[in-house]
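Quarterly update from the structural biology core.
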Amino acid sequence: GHGAGGRVALASLALGGGTSESALLLLPLTGGIVLGSGLTGRLMARTGRTREFPMAGMALAAVALAAMSVVPPSRGTLIALSMLTGAGLGTVMSTMQIVTQITAGPARLGGAAASVSLGRSLGASAGAAAFGALLFGAESVPDLAALRADPAALAETIRSFHHAFAGAAVL
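Predicted structure, tokenized:
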């Protein structure tokens, strides 16, 4: 639930790109997750600390999502803020997995790993549903393809995206 689908739709509507071009804007989010996860793993191994990294990462992701709620959409802005959001989320993913596996011990390792995976899936589903409700609950134009032809409706939809990203930052 970090607004990945919202990023694609926003890029497609606001920047006028096609679906494939807009979907490529998810690569910085994925790259940020990989970067954040790898960096956090190295820092945890070096310092032995696990608490601070997810806290800082979630703060980073929240700030990036909050920024998406106020800045005008542009390709560079979406790339930078997606990368920062991903880096923040990446700090949590690796830490949760490692701490859960260490706490569970060898006898319960499989169940613990499955629980983390289930929690991620449920969280992503709930987040996507909440983001969609925030975005499309206020949307008065049901045909998103027609938005490009109506500048006022497009501006209203972009405001709805800003509200949804603000909600995601709070969650």
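Residues 4 and 26 are 7 Å apart (CA to CA).
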